[in-house]
Amino acid sequence: MLRWTIIFLVVAIIAGILGFTGIAASAAGIAKILFFIFIVLFLISLIRGRTP
């Protein structure tokens, strides 16, 4: 999932440089959502991993 976040972030940066503001905003929004989902899943796995 982190890989998809990085892909969407790169797409957003490239689209922003080329002037495609709508595509850049969409890709950045998707990257932000995927990043927060990844963080939540990571924290859940840390918590579950510590309990026997």
Mean pLDDT: 83
* Strand fraction: under 5%
Oligomeric state: single chain
**Total number of distinct structural domains:** 1
Shape: rod-shaped
Number of strands: 0
Please summarize the sheet with the most strands.
none
Cα distance, first to last residue? 26 Å
Structure description:
The two termini are 26 Å apart. This protein has 2 helices and no strands. The chain has helices at 2-18, 21-50. Helix 1 packs antiparallel against helix 2. It is an all-alpha fold. The radius of gyration is 14 Å and the shape is rod-shaped. The chain has one domain.
Summary, kept brief:
The protein is mainly alpha-helical and 52 residues long.
List the helices and strands and how they pair.
Elements: H1 2-18, H2 21-50
Throw out a few tags for this protein.
52 residues; single chain; 2 helices; 0% strand; mainly alpha
